[in-house]
Write a sequence for this structure.
């Protein structure tokens, strides 16, 4: 019996969760996010880290060009940020914020209110992280049962709005990322359909003007996604909490 009791104590010590102290931790967390969510999230997140956990480091990997489900399954990514459709049961999710689409143009242009006819005449720029040739179906790419959004605008709403127009919508440029948009729109006739929070960020940093689309787009949920095996682990619970706090203004619609 003494040997059994000692073995049980050793087992309990091995599986006991260590106490996590953010202010003293030197951990490194790996996140997966696209450039849009990184742009609207990074500044408030780094402010929180600077106040609460100055020695914690972040690695942010792109959600594109990797097998996201495999990386989460293997523990190489701690949490993914994106738009997901019916994730498998081994994953857990939590809402960060919602958004709809708006139109942006170069800051020198003053469009005012536009209608469907005016929109149909515009050469449009959109962002797509993968095409049909890469297995995208309905704007989503599926890997190992995890479907993530690849088409970063509401194509169906655009096509419905212009279905009675003399001309179909013209997608003049399709990009794999958002960062080139301000340069493309400057001194051009192009217009881009983008998430509303990104349009606000661009307006603060670049010569960009945002205006409402002449049709409604379906609100999109940006969510955290992680593996069930880390559910309840103190350091990961804290990471999820600071990500929610960093997006509190986005949930309030600011």
């Amino acid at each position: 019996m003494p040997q059994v009791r000692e073995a049980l104590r050793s087992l309990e010590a091995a599986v006991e969760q260590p106490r996590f102290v953010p202010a003293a931790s030197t951990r490194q967390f790996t996140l997966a996010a696209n450039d849009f969510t990184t742009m609207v999230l990074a500044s408030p997140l780094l402010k929180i880290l600077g106040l609460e956990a100055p020695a914690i480091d972040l690695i942010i990997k792109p959600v594109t060009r990797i097998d996201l489900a495999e990386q989460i399954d293997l523990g190489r990514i701690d949490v993914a940020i994106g738009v997901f459709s019916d994730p498998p049961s081994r994953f857990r999710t939590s809402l960060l914020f919602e958004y709809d689409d708006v139109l942006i143009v170069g800051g020198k242009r003053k469009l005012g209110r536009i209608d469907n006819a005016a929109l149909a005449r515009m050469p449009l720029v959109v962002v797509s992280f993968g095409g049909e040739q890469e297995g995208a179906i309905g704007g989503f790419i599926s890997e190992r049962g995890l479907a993530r959004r690849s088409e970063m605008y509401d194509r169906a709403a655009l096509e419905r709005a212009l279905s009675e127009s003399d001309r179909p919508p013209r997608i003049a440029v399709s990009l794999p990322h958002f960062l080139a948009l301000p340069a493309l729109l400057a001194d051009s006739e192009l217009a881009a359909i983008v998430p509303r929070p990104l349009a606000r960020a661009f307006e603060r940093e670049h010569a960009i003007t945002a205006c409402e689309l002449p049709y409604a787009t379906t609100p999109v949920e940006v969510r955290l996604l992680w593996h069930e095996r880390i559910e309840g682990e103190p350091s990961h619970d804290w990471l999820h909490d600071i990500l929610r706090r960093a997006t509190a203004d986005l949930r309030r619609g600011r």
Observations:
- The chain has two domains: 26-98+220-251, 101-211.
